[in-house]
User: Fold this.
Amino acid sequence: MQFYVDPYFPDDIHAVGDAGMAGFEEKRPLYLSGCKNFLSHYREEIRTVHQGGASGTEITHLLCDMIDELVNKLFLSILDDIDSSRAAMEHVALVAVGGYGRGELNPYSDIDIMFLHDGSMPVSQVEDIAQKLLYFLWDMRLDVGYSVRVIADCVEMAAADNTVKTALMDVRYLNGSRQLYEALHKVIFTQILPKSSDKFIKEKMSELKVRREKYGSTVYLLEPNLKEGEGGLRDLQTAMWVARVKYKFNYPKELIIKGILSEDELETYYAALDYLWRIRNELHYFSGRKNDQLTFDAQVHLAGFLGYQDRDRVLAVEDFMRDYYRHANRVEHFSSSLVSRCVWRDEGALKILGYFVRRPVGDGCFVLKGELIVPDETVVEKNPVVLMRIFELAQKHGVTLNVRVKGLVRKNLHLVNDKFRRNRDVSQSFLNILSSTKGVAEALRRMHHLEFLNNYIPEMEHIYCKVQHDLYHIYTVDIHTLFAVEETERMLNNDLKKELPFPCEIAAQVGKRELLVLSVLFHDIGKGAGGGHAEKGAAMIPSICRRLGLSREDSERLAFLVRQHLLFAHISQRRDLNDERMIIQFARQMETSENLKMLFLLTVADVRAVGSDVWTSWKALLFQELYEKAFNVLERGDFRLEASSERVKGVMRKVTELLKDEFPPAKVQAELKAMPVRLLLSNNVPLISEHVRTLMGLERSDILMQVVHRPENGYSEFTICTPDMPGLFSRITGVMAANGVNILGAQINTCRNGKVLDILQVNSPHGELIVDEQRWQKVQNDMRRVIHGEADVALLVEKRQRPSLLTARPAPRFPTRIEFDNEVSEDYTVIDIYTHDKVGLLYLITSTLTHMGLYIGVSKISTKVDQVADVFYVRDIFGQKITDEGKLEEIKGRMIAAIDEWV
Assistant:
């Protein structure tokens, strides 16, 4: 595509005014109009070419050529309009720097220009030229950065600032004095780049670390940054900057001549740039601005633009992001590999000194300067077992893999075949890695990064870079799995004893740590095969275990853990842990205490590996409660329900005795007989006594409330006691929502004498303790007004829902789902509700249930980022479970309609 500015300028542009300042100002509107027309026309032409399937490289170069034509025409026009135009052409050079200097512009990229002069013209005159050009570009709404410098400035500033040195590496001549530009270019390679090259590289590595901390330390983030994130454009640019400082080249192709890169590697580099540029071009067009964040909505759009389509249960966007992560992984590998060669390139010295300082560790492997090296790479072809031993030896000696060793592994992945997988020495080496007390997660990360792991365990290929398009899972399935392994290792090594004392205590009791690690490694292995991943994953385990040479007992335990890996979290967070029948049923499923221990630890690791905000002290309490209750059942070996009548009588006698000095025994007995049996069986005697005191207090006041902070558990306990009324719990949840209080769980106790004792575990929406007494005073005042009918709870909630000044980022949406369970509880129908969170949602659900004539006995609240998974134990107005299919369908229909209209 050829670009011409002149046709867009009016024919009479040169006939307007005389030379000089006044003439230029008169001509300026015509120039500006022509430039805008030029930009508008060619931008649209380039976008059409882009949409027609042009490569990322082609579009970036077209955009750069378009800006070159515009800038050069304006520069020459400005010089034509001043008296000293000839002097300016001899003493000023217009230079592109940064991305523009590299010839890499995306639709809304910054344009960086340097006005280089030799100092013979007054600086004010050079700045006048610069200002005239810049005001044109700014008026066209181009994002332009600039500098006015002499060569000495460049040398001085580059010495003091790495950013300047980096920008100067990418300079490109645009117009003006070619001789001056060539002088700058020579200075860059003779004075600027040779100085402090090691310091420059170290600072670039430091910048890389800062970027990782800011934009994420893994390729596999939920919404990666295309430019700054790991595996993005900046990684490629940094690698080339470091290589240029080290090897002083003009064009990347020179790295082949210098023996730094192979032709295939350079092709990988150009292909990586092209891929990322094509995505970035469309991302800019889609956003209408400079944008590098692959947000959810952008991911969906890009998947469609690039031709991905939904298939079976896999979304198009998930396939696109899987390919993106694979690509980012290759980019990260190429970039780190090139940087490593620049840092450790002094091979001559190594060859001379290596034989004296390297330490043999077996199988042809040596340790040198904290790295594992393999001097004779033919040992791998002669004995493929060495491929696994490389990882075991690096772990054993606490060293990293040399960049050549990484390349050696990648180059020989074809040797990882069925014969290799069934080799007993290979299996033993792998199990040695897993049973080690150090570096297990790190070793598996290395295997994964080099694509060795999913070749060795081919079933893991299904989850390699597998995306789950939601806000809850913030990593790909494989990376989540590796994080879970790391959490498991830290518990096994007691590294988390302060943060997770109980899980670490249980981890110390596990017999075969490698079996636990395998269960974590394989727990999500079925996710690549569609729905029902736990069952599908368990079905894969027997063949994997046969290859690894595991015993039948270990294979069965591993299959059990993979099959049941969702059960512990489900029961602890979504079922009534005071239901003895349910606990016994769960314990029976565990079969042995060893299964229970491993499943507990697997679940803790799984939840903690999802994201930093997912694990909470509330979940820790629920997990521990379920574990202890199930363990007690397994230990006593008695799966029968205890006779509740005798236990209740014993509790009532003890409470009456404890309170005999405060209340008449007959009144205490009456209050206890009116209490729900489950309240008496699920609490200790001192706590039940407190409940009795509270209930007796209703004789003096019609509403009693109390807030007790539990900082060690991360929540406050809000207790309310009042006479029963229709929709009471709905009113309570509404007041909490209106005051920004998050409900974690609720024990709803309706006594037979018409009194209600509800106990709520609450905290802030951010998971923090609410200790502001004025805020709690407002909650209690609102609660009294609502219960007395002096305030409308719906209006209070509505006020809380005012729109935020900040626009929330779009998130993937999934349909509301309602499920019923009439088996788990003997007394209640359990309703599971899955939907998206919003202020007042719990109030909406409880009020809708109330309007349908359902009474809520137990409520368990669970919010995973933006996804709600709430549970309600309900009965009808006659105190019975709801078993009629027609009634259940009616409840489901009305609940979905109410929630979807609200959300």
Q: What stands out?
A: Residues 12-22, 346-356, 803-810 have pLDDT under 50 and may be disordered.
